Amino acid sequence: MAFRKFLYGRWIGAGYAIKGAWILLKTEPSIQVQAVIGVIMTAAGILFDITQTEWLFQIVAIGMIMSLEGLNTAIEAIADFVHPDFHVKIGLIKDVAAGAVFITAVTAIIIGLIIYVPYIMDLLD
């Protein structure tokens, strides 16, 4: 019985997670941009027939940037709720969260370049 309760709790939790992901995709422009980039990169992976290892790196990069965008959105919402007016420390918290997204985005770009530049160079030869 305890195991069934555990599974039921996970099922309910997954529902909340899916709801949160849907809200992000529907309402947050930064996530929408990242989702479009993710679709473009997935299409590029299919077009260039990238290797399984390259797919793994690409999927992790897309997942990390979208996850961090979601966390950044949550941090900003909490900060605005706690202190709606401008506050230096709230600004610092928001900047640090945005900085984490930036670092991940740069990392994703580097991963994309490492994967795709050789394929593009082969096309140009």
TrEMBL record:
Substrate binds at residue 69. Pfam families: DAGK_prokar. Its cofactor is Mg(2+). The active site is at 69 (proton acceptor). The chain crosses the membrane at residues 7-25, 31-48, 55-79, 99-121. CDD domains: UDPK_IM_like. GO terms for molecular function: ATP binding; kinase activity; metal ion binding. Its main location: membrane. Keywords: ATP-binding, Cell membrane, Kinase, Lipid biosynthesis, Lipid metabolism, Magnesium, Membrane, Metal-binding, Nucleotide-binding, Phospholipid biosynthesis, Phospholipid metabolism, Transferase, Transmembrane, Transmembrane helix. A divalent metal cation binds at residues 28, 76. ATP binds at residues 16, 28, 76, 94-95. PANTHER family: DIACYLGLYCEROL KINASE (PTHR34299:SF1). Belongs to the bacterial diacylglycerol kinase family. This is Diacylglycerol kinase. It comes from Nonlabens spongiae. The lineage of its organism: Bacteria, Pseudomonadati, Bacteroidota, Flavobacteriia, Flavobacteriales.
